[in-house]
Specification:
single chain; mainly alpha; Alpha-lytic protease prodomain-like; Alpha-Beta Plaits; 2 domains; 10 helices; elongated
């Protein structure tokens, strides 16, 4: 059976990724220059953070590309779950390269304080970074609203329930980047005006804790998808309705779903058809149900329907409680 064509819904994702990659690369360079001239630990942490974000979004783009590979003998259901794997890898990199390094640098700066030099470089880099990252955040938020329009609700709930981790990951990264820049700006300013470098170190620690929290949330969501989540309750309800509405269906005994990617759902059904159907009638009913499901859910790439056997019916009638 040929897998149906899936409409291309990745243009907005690619747009958000490209905006994030360009923005983070430019900001990383500016922060690195500022650190070289000032010695600010917050600027160093922010520079590493932006380098990590650049590589992270490149990895998300790689996952997007690899997920389009056609099915093969070794991967007969295709490679759609590549997007979940790379999203999980990104969360680990945020934790290690972003949060872990920032925490280390902040604690090191607290125990070995040093003054900030040439503070104007910091202000220039941070202001430039806030402007560029805010633009990237705006692009990501616009694309996230497209997801939210299909599943209205609070932002965090939509992020938890979405089956596409790419845009939420980019949105979280860009939000953390803007927040980190503001925190770094506050830390540098307090250090400059008070002469106490502890503020710069504390700002670095705050950035680290923020990134670790973001990494934890993203890792949890990506892990859940990676190990195999069912389709959403709304999608399962739609599938069930299509099945039970068919005139040849007596009952839907079992519905199993597996979300293999944002545009790929595997569906397995065990259906009890009416008793007076011959083989051709069952075949026609199966085809109608399959066509009906794909008509409302193009992402249903694989649909398997098992007709409940006479022996199973007899066993169920003799033991309706399943004892």
């Amino acid at each position: 059976m040929k897998t149906p064509d899936i409409p291309n819904t990745n243009e907005g994702v690619v747009k958000a990724l490209l905006a994030g990659i360009v923005a983070n690369l430019l900001v990383a360079i500016s922060k690195g220059i500022a650190f070289f001239f000032t010695g600010s630990s917050a600027m160093l942490a922010e520079s590493i953070h932006s380098v990590a974000d650049t590589s992270n979004q490149a990895l998300l783009a790689l996952g997007l590309k690899r997920a389009k590979k056609p099915a093969s003998e070794s991967h007969q259901f295709g490679y759609a779950m590549e997007r979940y794997f790379w999203a999980f890898m990104v969360s680990l990199l945020i934790f290690l390269l972003g949060g872990g390094f920032a925490l280390y640098e902040g604690i090191h700066k607290l125990s070995n304080p040093s003054p900030i030099r040439n503070v104007a470089w910091n202000y220039g880099a941070l202001t430039f970074g806030i402007l560029i990252e805010s633009f990237a955040l705006r692009v990501a938020y616009h694309e996230f609203q497209e997801i939210r329009a299909k599943n209205p609700g609070p932002i965090l709930r939509v992020m938890r329930e979405t089956k596409d981790p790419t845009i939420p990951t980019v949105l979280f990264e860009d939000s953390a980047a803007v927040f980190g820049l503001i925190v770094a700006l506050i830390g540098v300013s307090l250090t400059y005006f008070t002469g106490n470098s502890s503020y710069d170190a504390i700002a670095t620690i705050v950035i680290g804790v923020t990134l670790i929290a973001v990494a934890w949330f993203l890792a949890r969501e990506s892990h859940s998808l990676l190990v195999g989540e069912a389709a959403s309750e709304a999608d399962q309800k739609r599938i069930r309705q299509v099945v039970v509405d068919d005139e040849a269906v007596e009952d839907l005994i079992e519905l199993l779903t597996l979300q293999r990617g944002p545009d790929s759902i595997l569906i397995a059904l065990k259906v009890d058809f009416v008793d007076d159907l011959y083989t051709r009638g069952v075949e026609d009913a199966i085809q109608r149900v399959e066509d009906g499901i794909r008509g409302i859910m193009p992402e249903a790439t694989h649909v398997f329907i098992e007709a409940n056997s006479f022996r199973s019916k007899k066993r169920q009638s003799q033991n309706p409680r399943g004892d």
